[in-house]
Amino acid sequence: MTPVKSRSATRRVASPASPAKPEAPAAELRGVIRAAGLRSTAPRVAVLGWLRRARAPLSHGEIAEALAPQGFDRATIYRNLVDLTDAGLLRRIDVGDHVWRFEREGDGGAAKSAKASHPHFVCVDCGALSCLPEVSVAISPKPGSQRSKIGDVSQVLLQGHCGQC
Predict the structure, then answer these.
(1) Is a pLDDT exceeding 50 seen at residue 61?
(2) 165 inside domain
(3) Residue 144 lies in a domain
């Protein structure tokens, strides 16, 4: 558990000690990075590989800590998170605690995967963050109301109490 400071109090956010999914081959990751118009460097491959296997969005600090044994410093990890996000391979989310978290986006940026457009759940007690790929949220105007003021929804965040709290 990693402490996260919020305006109200320090919360503990569950973060995976190691990714849950099997590792993607480095050659595949290099191809995805090149297809997005970036040079395929060791730090980019490591960051993208780590986030492809993560169970939930991770902060810069969590990723930097996980990849430190491979010799990558925090600034290098941050620059690569920004580059991969700008290229459309990662997505940044903020769950209300002013800490950017990153998760995998659809490969290539243009073809967004169904996994990429899922909502997230944050427990208001323990701060645990979960992806909800099996949940669909539809936002539509109330029947008879004037045209909706909502344009494009980029993130849906559900808050409540998790099963552990």
Answers:
(1) yes
(2) no
(3) yes
Q: Check if the beta carbon of residue 138 is closer than 8 Å to that of residue 89.
A: no
Sorting pLDDT into bands at 50, 70 and 90, what band is 19?
A: low
Q: Is the dihedral of CA 31, 50, 108, 39 positive or negative?
A: negative
CATH number of domain containing 41: 1.10.10.10
Give the total number of structural domains in the chain. 1
Residue 116: which domain range?
A: 2-160
pLDDT in tens, 99-123: 899 988 854 443 344 444 778 888 8
Residue 148 in 3-state DSSP? coil
Query: Residues of 122-134 as b/e, b for ≥16 C-beta within 10 angstroms?
Result: bbeebbbbbbeee
CB-based contacts of 89: which residues, under 8 Å, 6+ apart?
A: 32, 33, 36, 48, 104, 105, 107, 108, 109
Q: What is the predicted pLDDT for the residue at 72?
A: 96
d(CA 61, CA 27): 26
pTM, full prediction: 0.66
